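Fold Annotation — chain and its backbone
Next Lines — sequence and tokenised fold

***
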Amino acid sequence: MLTEERVIDALREVMDPELRRSLVELGMVKDVEIEGSQVRFTLALTTLACPLKDQIVSEARAAVLALEGAEAVDIELAEMTAEEKKRIGIGSAGEGGIAENLNSIQRVVAVMSGKGGVGKSLVSSLLAVALRRHGERVGVLDADITGPSIPKMFFPDGARPGQSPLGILPAQTKTGIKIMSINLLLPNEDEAVIWRGPLISGAIRQFWGDVFWGDLDWLIVDLPPGTSDASLTVIQSLPLSGIVLVSSPQDLAGMVVRKAASMAKRLGVPILGLVENMSYFICPDTGKQHDIFGPSHAEETARKLWIPFLGRLPIDPEIAKVCDTGHIEGYPAEAFAPIAEQVMKAAPAASQPRFPIGQGKKQ
């Protein structure tokens, strides 16, 4: 016999594709009525503008029609109230951001350097691309608020984040890497972000807590150079699996990367290893290797810091071309593949942040 209980049980098997929870568990199913072989009920969506509403309605209708005795299903659409949205964890920022409890991010790796110009954003991008080639679900959070360069490397025609009741939707690259950067929000990519430390820290927290990243195996965080407020916010507020340090052959770069390593160790964050960028140049005519910036000090630096040395990256004119044109995902990056594999082996699952968002110590 067709009963309300059987209809509800059938709808328990239908999942919201974004929230990954049952329609019944979310409280979306209301006012079930049965008249003979006809079933009527209301489906309260998080928003009537939900882009997946047709899929949800179709799956709900199919689930009920599969019941013995059900021949017709009439579904009326409605929108959840603000209180109902709040009860399932959306629509109100609270302490952790409107999307934080909806995201499932397995590993969070920050890429850090002691000074600018050593290729930190390049390493962040290459790591994201390499992980994606391994079939991993990857996102990049561009925490370099005043000097963002990640979008330029991935989007030849520009991009914009989306909006949903679950939070801001990151822009997606051609291969499916999710990107969030302040440059995606600016009307003009050349516009300067002239913000003091607290505003920068607030933006980084929003990129973590108010962006609906969904399910990710890896989130790569591109930090600004140095050991300022932005780096401190990421280390204290995000559940980091570890940090990758980036340097270049000059002894000055080695000195400042030691400062970055000192900060990470003092705050108790694992250092996954050190990458040396612009380490050498291979002459295309002779095949001879030239140390343009002098002999490498990276292995020595890593040894003194008691951290793994992950490898060296060459100076390659092609990399400048693909970064400037937004096609870094097409760069083969043979020299980076073993570096990415070492990071994959070394990075533990994300831990709890040292000071969770909304509870952090004021600096």
Q: What stands out?
A: Confidence is low (pLDDT under 50) at residues 354-363. The chain has two domains: 4-87, 100-346.
